[in-house]
Amino acid sequence: MLPERLPFNIKLPLALISITVVVYWLSILESVLVPFIISIILSILLFPVCHWLEKRKMGRVLAITITLVLFTVLIGVIVYLASTQIAGFSEMIPQLLDKLEKAYNNLLRWTSEKFDLSIETQTDQLNTYANQLLDRGGVVVGTALTTTSNMLGNLSIMPVYMFFLLLYRDFFKDFFYKVFKNTEKEKVDEVLSKIYDVIHSYLSGVIIVTIIVGTLNTISLLLLGIDYAIFFGFLASILLVIPYIGILIGSLLPIIIALVTKDSPMYAVGVAASFFVIQMLEGNFITPNIVGSKVSINPLAAILGLLMGATLWGLAGMALCLPIIAIIKVVFDSVPDLQPYGFLMGEPSISNDNTEAKRKRAHRIEKEIVDTISGKRIFFKKKHSPKPKE
Description:
Layout: H1 8-28, H2 30-55, H3 60-90, H4 93-115, H5 119-155, H6 158-167, H7 169-179, H8 185-224, H9 229-238, H10 246-261, H11 266-290, H12 299-313, H13 315-334, H14 339-345, H15 352-384
């Protein structure tokens, strides 16, 4: 019989062993868990549509089917529009290769003049490095292709996941009631409701922010005369789901296109500057006002989650890190023993001292007003009260 309170030197190894086992199985089951988690998040996003159809006296199965069909059609339209842009962009590849080759030859000549290195020597060295990279990257590319093909195969089953997640939502709620049978149902409903609000607010906010930022990116690229502005503008906005580095990855392609297709490098500077300004607007005004404080994760926790997600699941882990961290924080905030960890993941209240000072000042002013009113009441009483008889 274990004691109720284990000592720290026993709790820490047990916690580390548990975390190690969980991380191991998360890594092993990546190809299954990633599509399933994405299906859960998308099901939360689509639930209002399904619920709206059900309130119109439509059966749940039919409502879910219509919702998934509409969602699939929307994704198909987006993929079609993107593919047309990519097809047009592929026609520019020969021109891009020619300009890259000219830039490469100019760089070799400049290096030869500045550092007294022959072009042949530079070419041999670059070929050696390229062959080494190809040898080392062959296994990595093969593994990546295998993983990608497995992932695409598992993504095809996502509509099935989403269908049953929406169909059995009441069944899953009863499951949580049974797991946490010692907890009041109202408390379980509150936690589940918070998780739903956080994920739904995050996803709907991300979609709106993506549209706004994509439009701003497209306008800036059109003003600079960059080809395929719509494709590059919305690609950069979609990559915002990867915190902090998504916009950097999305801006590299239009910068390269500007360097290759334009005569002046100032176009590339203009692309970088416009994307930087839009990123500042997105981070300081657009996202805070649209997404709000529903996902109150501090930047340090987000960066750590980003790195751990990338290490565990690669690009998918980077995209899923914020909603998963938000769910974990909701759970931590709801469990008394885990609340300190939820507090650590949240936004620090930098203005706590100022808030306390404002509260004390407001209390002091309120007391002065009450004292003043009381004093006036005493004054009126003294003024209007009959004089005592001598």
